[in-house]
Amino acid sequence: MNSQTPPPLPDANSAIRTYARAVALLIPTMGVWSFAVAFLFPKVEQIWRDAGLTGSKVQWLMNALYAFGQSFYLLIAGAIVFFLVVEFRWAAWPRYRRTLVACITLFIHTAVLIAITAMAVAISLAAPLLAIHRK
């Protein structure tokens, strides 16, 4: 029998593991959002215009979608800069890293889900009016 101690296990709360997990979870979300912005949102805008809803009381929905689409990647860049700053400047960051990264990842998932749901609501509002205009 050999009484050598085994090598230490990697730290479950290491920075690389935490950030790699967050990136792995955000890749599908980023892909879905990129698809929605490139293909779905232009169609939603076209249907919205054809239904004659531009300037209506629910125009705020399309304005919010447009603003979110324009600022989404800026928000992601801001989160990355935030993580870089706290990783190298705040000594207590490792204690909170896992929780905050998980919360921000969940926030991004939720924001994309709400935005895509808002696109569906916009189509649901425009579809009946579009059918009336086409007759």
Please describe the topology of this protein.
Elements: H1 15-50, H2 59-89, H3 93-134
Helix pairs in contact: 1-3, 2-3
Explain this structure.
The longest helix has about 40 residues, at about 95-135. This protein has three helices and no strands. With about 140 residues, the protein is mainly alpha-helical. α1 (about 15-50) runs parallel beside α3 and α2 (about 60-90) packs antiparallel against α3. It has one domain. The model has no long low-confidence stretch (mean pLDDT about 90).
**Percent range of helical residues:** over 70%
> How many separate structural domains?
1
Specify the number of helices.
3
Order of helices and strands: HHH
Considering the chains and any ligands shown, give keywords for the structure.
135 residues, single chain, mainly alpha
Write a short abstract of this structure:
The protein has 135 residues and is mainly alpha-helical. Helix content is 81%, strand content 0%.
